[in-house]
Amino acid sequence: MSVHIPIQLQGILSTISILDLLDILIVAIILYKLYQMLQDTRAITLVKGILMLLMLSIATNWMGMHVIYWLLQQTVTLLFVALPIVFQPELRRTLEHIGQGSFFGRSVLLDVDQARLLINELDRAVMLLSSKKIGALIVIERNMKLDDVSATGIRIEGLITADFLMNVFIPNTPLHDGAAVIRGNRLIAAGCILPLTDNRMLSTELGTRHRAAIGLSEQCDALIIVVSEETGTVSIAENGKIIRYLNSERLKGYLRPVYAPKKTGFKDLLKNWRRKQ
Fold first, then answer.
1. Which are the contacts of 162, defined by CB distance < 8 A and separation ≥ 6?
2. Which domains does the chain have, with CATH numbers?
3. Neighbours of 262 (CB within 10 A)
């Protein structure tokens, strides 16, 4: 049985070359990677809002509603002008991803057994630090390399174990007050200095460690673990936000995607997008 293709469609298909298909595929991949980087940040909400305004703009133009169409056009223009100012941290993070060649992949890959062992060691170390009320600041590197941060501390290059991390944060030692930077399953530096956040809306309960963790998370994609010296509370800083009062299971829940991310297909992407609406 032959399939009849309309003449107009045949004309369009005849003009499409292999280079056109490759061009469309590359653009689709770039847009998908940009969405992955923005989906857990504040910027994604504004992007969705702009897309809604653009669709409304097209609809009002088609229906001949000239006044509303003009207002929507001006609003979208203003939003595009405001984007670089309002979302400077997210734009900087994206440009650094591209500049460091980490736009299309992760910097460190571990197999399943290595990832499970590392997560357990990190969890055990953090919970021991918490129970003893020993302050700690642990930076876990993701795609974006943190060589500038590790350069402010003492180079170590040691394999991660719970006992090793405990020794790094022993009180009254040179490395105690700084941050430890982890790349893959190795501690690359300790005693590092992190930038403090400029956010003035934070709770006064948050000390210097917490503000330093938030400050770094505003500038890169790292996951930062904080253990309070006063209360032993365990917190996580990510994308400029801090989540406090974590227990062992919740901490592992944040660590698993870092070392063993799930491969998400197009269907999973749509489900996650709908769930976040």
1. 121, 122, 124, 125, 128
2. 17-105 (no CATH), 112-259 (3.40.1700.10)
3. 8
Long-range contacts at 113-116 (CB < 8 A, ≥ 24 apart): 114/185, 114/259, 115/256, 115/259, 115/260, 116/260
Identify any residues that bridge with 192 across adjacent strands, giving them in sequence order. Answer: 179
Match 């174990």 to its residue by tokens: 161
In sequence order, which ranges of the chain are alpha helices (DSSP H)?
7-15, 18-38, 43-62, 66-86, 88-99, 112-131, 147-150, 162-168, 208-217, 248-259, 266-275
> What's 62's DSSP letter?
H
* β 136-140/179-183 pair status: parallel
Compute CA distances 158 → 14, 122, 168, 185, 188, whole Å.
60, 14, 11, 9, 7
Per-residue pLDDT tens digits of the chain, which is 277 residues long: 455 556 666 666 667 778 878 888 888 888 777 776 666 555 666 677 778 888 888 888 888 888 888 888 888 777 777 766 666 665 665 666 555 555 555 545 677 888 899 999 999 999 999 999 999 999 999 877 788 888 899 999 899 999 999 999 998 888 888 999 999 899 999 999 999 998 888 888 888 999 999 999 988 889 999 999 999 999 999 988 999 999 999 999 999 988 875 554 444 545 444 444 4
CA distances from 165 to 22, 65, 121, 175, 248 (A): 48, 64, 9, 11, 16
Amino acid in the structure at residue 87: F
| Dist CA 144 CA 100 (whole Å) | 7
Backbone angles phi, psi at 205, to 5 degrees: -70, -20
- Contact between 210 and 203 under an 8 Å Cβ cutoff? The reply is no
